[in-house]
Amino acid sequence: MSEADKIVEFVYEVGQLKRLPRAGWLFAGVQNPESVAAHSFRVGVLAYAIAVQEGANPDRAATLGLFHDVPEARIGDIPYVGKLYLDVKMPPEEVARDQVKNLPAPLAAHIEALVAEHESAKGDDHTPEARCSRDADKLELLLQAREYQAAGVTKMERFIQTMQGSVVTDTGKALMDSALRIVPSEWWEAFGRR
């Protein structure tokens, strides 16, 4: 099997994230929740913006955000309530290592490092970019909850409240405050006021 074949197989696997719904939203009554891939895209954009404002490397932060949920192509999106009952034997870093073991070595090393660096933000030994990416992950959930709330889904307050204490960067906190104040439709309603 050629290197190109191995990369294409990996990209097909990552494509599963386009069809994998974010499971936590199902508990809240969202009929057709966003996919993990849609979530990861906006995490990457947010991580980039946060990193620019924080003086971190925006390209690295965005890449961390883009790749952070790649292991979910294999293990699924386990909602918080499910994590209380599951003994997940393999952390995301190890899942990623297994996912990329057939890729060309330099590419595999890069992807493994991205997932591990994002996960490092859960502890004390993390890079500024990991902190930006982790904040982006939490902010994206808050933004999505606000969007579902605006669309009439009523059980969003818990999601919004739990994310508020998770954001650590100054920029992330400022974005969170704005997200709580600005209605999701403001960006397009402004066109009507021109």
Automatic annotation (TrEMBL):
The reactions it catalyses are: a 2'-deoxyribonucleoside 5'-phosphate + H2O = a 2'-deoxyribonucleoside + phosphate
A GO molecular-function annotation: hydrolase activity
> Is Ubl conjugation one of the keywords?
no
Cofactor requirement: Mn(2+); Co(2+)
Alphabetized, the UniProt keywords read: Hydrolase, Metal-binding
Q: What is its EC number?
A: 3.1.3.89
Output the InterPro entries linked to this UniProt entry.
HD/PDEase_dom, HD_domain, YfbR/HDDC2
HD/PDEase domain span: 32-151
| Pfam families to which the protein is assigned, alphabetical | HD_3
Alphabetical list of PANTHER family matching this protein: 5'-DEOXYNUCLEOTIDASE HDDC2
**Assembly and oligomerization:** Homodimer.
Q: What is the name of the protein in this document?
A: 5'-deoxynucleotidase
